[in-house]
Amino acid sequence: MSNTATESLAPSPTRGASATAIATPRPPRASSMRPVITIARREMAATFDSPIAYIAGTVFLVVTGLLFFFGVSGADDFFAAREATLRPLFEYAPWVLAVILPAVTMRLLAEEKKAGTLELLVTLPVTDLQIVLGKLLGAVGFLAVALLLTGVFPLLVAMKGAPDLGAVAGGYLGLFLVGTAFLSLGLMTSTWTHNQIVAFIVGLLLCAFFWTATDALLKAVFDPVPSVLQLLNFQNQFSDFSKGVVDLRNVLYFVAVTAVGVAVSTYSLQSRQWK
What's the whole-number mean pLDDT along residues 235-242? Predict the structure, then answer.
């Protein structure tokens, strides 16, 4: 969150506070969602004030578009296909999200630590959970905008035929859920370090691990892979969405992953206050 966002949450008597004020106990914290919304709005504004949002958004649209129209190595030609489907979009987009979303989340708290504004932030009348939720919701705003910009693909498919609207809605819901889970992992890594590059690399590795690497590792160790351990693989939970099938269990899975990321981020933020 930017310095402006930090100031917007601070009571007016502390605007000129020095290091002495930072060392004082926290004032009573607000229990409503207002601080979360305030932080989220400021984070989203800060994200789109930086070039990262535009670079990440452009990379997402260009790479996803190329994969959607031509597939890998030109294997799937959208213009030659006779089927009006968005399945290639839902097949390839999560791979791209796993790369660009850690670039968006890497600055969320690592930047606060490097700039020295985290100490001020944690003294404001907000809880650690509200800080984490606000940061995450701000990043989710970027994700929502990025997905909205892919709306050109359903329009192109509709020109070829009548796509299954239920499948389209289910696929986009899956992209939103898996993207939010990626963001929670990226935010978690941002609480672990002052260095944004380190946060990006660790976040990228985590997203890649849970999206694809777990399947290969588990198959190398277990034959067959126990059903419980298959839950570690995001692709297994996302595959139904890519087919337009919305299973409540898969929805709850990604919600649970996001909740774990938020919980770990909150604990990490709390623990670092006393170091």
Answer: 84
Indicate the length of the chain as a whole number: 275
Quick: pLDDT tens for 38-76: 888 988 888 888 888 899 999 999 999 888 877 666 556
Find the Cα–Cα–Cα–Cα dihedral 204, 208, 210, 215, rounded to 10°: -160
Q: Which of 233 and 123 is assigned the larger pLDDT?
A: 233
- Let me know: does 260 contact 100? Beta carbons within 8 Å: no
Omega of the bond prior to 224 within 30 degrees of 0, cis? yes
Q: How far apart are CA 61 and CA 146, in angstroms?
A: 8
Find tokens 């969602």 and name the residue: 33
Cα–Cα distance between 168 and 19 in angstroms, integer? 53
Residue 2 CA to its chain's centroid (Å) = 19
User: Which DSSP helix (H) or strand (E) runs through 267?
Assistant: helix 248-272
Q: Are 247 and 240 in contact (CB under 8 A)?
A: yes
> Please, are residues 170 and 241 in contact by the beta-carbon 8 Å criterion?
yes
Contact assessment for residue 171 and residue 244, using Cβ atoms and an 8 Å cutoff: yes
The tokens for 157 are 């498919």
Token readout for 121 is 């932030």
